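Researcher: Please translate sequence to structure tokens.
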Amino acid sequence: MLDDNKAWDAVKRRDRSFDGRFFTGVLTTGVYCRPSCVARHPDRKNVGFFATGAQALAAGLRPCKRCRPDEVGRDEAAVLAAIEAIKLGEAERLDELAAITGYSPAHLQRLFKRATGLSPAAYSLALREERARDALGQVGRVTDAIYEAPSRFYDGMKGKMGLTPSDWKNGGAGRVIHWGVIDTTLAPMLVAATEKGVCCLSFNEGEEELRARFPKADLVRGGQEFRALSERVTRAVERPGSGTDIPLDVKGTAFQQRVWQELLRIPAGETRSYGELAAALGSPKASRAVGGANGANNIAVLIPCHRVIQSDGTLGGYAYGLRIKEELLKREHGG
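Model: Translation complete:
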């Protein structure tokens, strides 16, 4: 059960991903609802939260006739059964999964995508890729796989981020990373690069933080060739929006790379909300996963995660402090 503040935030967003995790009781009308119920929001002072529908019933409330909260349990059970069948290799095709769950294929597809952000086929692909990463010695969790694969793995990732999954296996073992710390008008900037391109750009960090990101890579202080690249990066930071031709060597999951590719499409001087970014990726309910991918970006400015803000127009968070984020946006707007 979530704390009340997080539960209320989910209700205000009408976040379907929380359906079944708790129930909203409207004490003045005597009904309880799903968090995603489309009815007009009640006053916060009139709302209570319940871990189960049975608890809401015991409190004297009745199920909402509009969102039918008691059906959430059956829908959730069907999605979990489909996930289990995929994981065990018992079924993969939509018609097979529908037969197992007792739902029509079209209805199961809608439920599955609403719950996970992906279709059963995309989830199955994510699971296969997750197991492939495990075989390569990479860290990952099957429960995260629903957010880690597109409909076609690494589709459209040619050019700047056209990497294969094995490029960053085992903590960067076998990779050589040249690095240095450069003074900028924003803050001291850590720049690191492989033979393929920049793999890290951060502020107020040094060798210790770089080692944490790439624990098994060979870290080497940058020489003359690195200096030429670092000067290009510095110009791009001092004039955000430039430097689009600087090669990048990214380390991340398939979903993270999709998010970062979408970030690169945001023009300098413009911003997007997490929800807008999720919608652009075709997964409008995955705004939380988009936020996680945004925060996992190792290459600040060149992959412009600073252009993502809250839906209410406030800046939201930034790994290197809101002062730097605010200044980057100001410069892009010509301020």
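Researcher: Any highlights?
Model: The beta strands are 23-26, 31-33, 47-50, 62-63, 176-182, 189-193, 198-203, 218-221, 272-273, 308-309.
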